[in-house]
Amino acid sequence: MQNFDFFDKLTDEEKKYLLKNSKKITLPKNYTLFYQGDVCTDILFLEEGKVNLSIHGDLNEVISLYEIGCSEQCIINISSAISATPAVATAETITSIKGRLVPLQIIKKLMSTSLIYQEYVFSFFALKFHALATLIEDIKFKKLDSRIMSYLQKQDQKIINITHEELANSLGTSRVVISRILKDLENKKIIKLQRKRIEVL
Questions:
Q1: In three state form, how does the secondary structure of 80-105 look?
Q2: Which of 17-21, 82-86, 129-133, 164-168 has the lowest mean pLDDT?
Q3: Element (H, E) at 167
Q4: How confident is the model at residue 20 (pLDDT cuts 50, 70, 90)?
Q5: Looking at the structure, do residues 46 and 103 belong to the same domain, yes or no?
Q6: Which residues fall within 8 angstroms of residue 78, CB to CB, at 6 or more apart?
Q7: Which of 85, 107, 120, 162 is deepest in the core (most CB within 10 A)?
Q8: What is the pLDDT of residues 39-96, one digit of tens each?
Q9: DSSP per residue over 112-142, as a string?
Q10: Is residue 2 in a domain?
């Protein structure tokens, strides 16, 4: 909890209250924290690892919305819990994770008494809404080959360990379409395809 930006700014009483009423968790890779349609009752403070949020369509289509990492919280988790409404996406661990689960009533009390925590939560809403707006713009206006290259370049490494199916799920399309476009990009000598990895040239 100490790695969260807001934590050091809380009063000693608020720190003790939050730590006392939180539950430490350790979960493996590919673990589903909550499903699309669930109503969240606890809020995750992620201390280690990564979690992906994705929407699942009626025809087994999957669109990845965003990831959260160390010292972050999930706006879908928070909004579902606070409003007692179904989560609009599924949360699944990308790596093994460690963190703390805090019951909703504890968070409600903290938000009502701590301006520091309120500002922290609203700042995350602003960041993730911007990420979602960018995703919607990409889906609507960018060609898929541009979206593929943008995704690969954001990984900040020349060789990305990813399967065609995983890339398709991240971009909300089919594996067949992804494979066809990747082959075209390889023929143009923009990338090089290897088994379960893609090299950006």
A1: HHHHCCCCCCEEEECCCEEEEEEEHH
A2: 129-133
A3: helix 164-171
A4: very high
A5: yes
A6: 43, 107, 121
A7: 107
A8: 999 999 999 999 998 887 765 667 777 888 898 888 899 989 988 999 988 999 999 9
A9: HH-HHHHHHHHHHHHHHHHHHHHHHHHHHHS
A10: no
Domains in the chain: how many in total?
2
Amino acid at 1: M
Amino acid, res. 157: Q
pTM score above 0.85:
no
Beta strands in the chain (DSSP E): 23-27, 32-34, 42-48, 51-56, 62-68, 90-93, 97-103, 159-160, 191-194, 197-200
* The last residue of a domain, from among 89, 108, 140: 140
Smallest CA-to-CA distance from 33 within 73, 93, 105, 78 is with 93
- Quote the mean pLDDT of the chain: 85
114-126, pLDDT tens digit by residue?
A: 888 888 888 777 7
63 with 19: CB under 8 angstroms?
Answer: no
| Sole residue written with tokens 């090299």 | 199
**Containing structural domain, residue 152:** 142-200
